[in-house]
Amino acid sequence: MPRIHVTVILTLTALAGFLTSVVLLHSGMSWMWLRYPLAISLAYGVFLLLLWLWLRLQRGIPDIELVDIHLGDLDLSSYTSTSSGHSTNFGGGGNFSGGGAGGSWGRSTSASGSGSSSHGFFPDLDLEEGWLIVLAILALLGALIATLYVVYIAPALLAEILVDGALVAGLYKRVKHSRERHWLRGAVRQTVLPAVLVILFFTVAGVALQKAVPGAQTMVQAWQMHQRHSDTNE
Questions:
Q1: Res. 29: pLDDT tops 80
Q2: Residue 82 has pLDDT above 70, yes or no
Q3: pLDDT surpassing 90 at residue 200
C-alpha cells in the first residue's frame, strides 16, 4: 500500500514543517513570506530522512525476500523509463500556519495603512485586500495539489528507491547490465519539483497575506483579522 505509506510520511513531514514554523515564530521571525519557505525546506530534508528510514525498514523485513525474486525476468531499463514518466508529468504541501505570538523580526508597527508590508521589502501591489486573500487561497491550493501529486506517484517512487537501494546493497547481482544507483538520486529527481513548487506557493501566500493583513504573523491570525475587519465594515 505505497500511497498509504507516503501519506504517513507526508503527514510527519508536514508536522516537522509546522513545528519548525512555530519555533521560528517564537524566535522572532514574524515574516510569513520568509518563515514558511525556511520551514518547508527543512521539512523536505525530513521527508528524505523518512524515506531512508522506510527503505531501512523494508530491508529488515524478511517477508520481502528480495533475493528470491526471479531477477532474470526483471527489466530495469523498462522500469526506469516508466518511473521517469511520472516525474515529468507534473500537474501542480501542507499548511504550516505557525502558532503563538511575539517576535521582533519584521514585526509590523501598525495594522493600518494601504496594505503594504511593514518591512518595506516588497513594492506596493495595486490589489484590494480581498483579491490578496483570494491569491493566498489559490497559492495554498496549488501547494495542496503538489502534495497530492507526490501521493499519486507513490508506487513508482517507493519502487524506484527500493530497487536502487537493493542494487546498492548488492542484492541484485544476478541482474545483467544493471547499473548501481543511489536511492537518494531517484527520490530527489521525483520529488524536488513538487517541493520547490510548494515553497513558491507558500511564499506567494505569505507575501499576499502580509500585504493584505500587515499585522498578522500566521495564516490563522491573518484570516481572523480579515474576518473581524469584514464584520466591522458591515
A1: yes
A2: no
A3: yes
Cell of 26: 517564537
The number of folded domains in the chain is: 1
Burial class (CB in 10 A: 0-12, 13-18, 19+), 9: buried
What stretch of H or E contains 202? helix 183-212
Of the two residues 39 and 231, the one the predictor is more confident about is 39
CA atoms of 5 and 11, how far apart (whole Å): 10
Structural domain including 179 reads 2-233
- What pLDDT, in 10s, does the model give residues 176-196? 444 446 788 889 999 999 999
* CA 74 – CA 222 distance, rounded (Å): 54
**Cβ neighbours of 173 (radius 10 Å):** 11
Dist. CA 224–CA 138, nearest whole Å = 18
Show the 3-state SS of 70-125. CHHHCCHHHHHHHHHHHHHCCCCCCCCCCCCCCCCECCCCCCCCCCCCCCCCCCCC
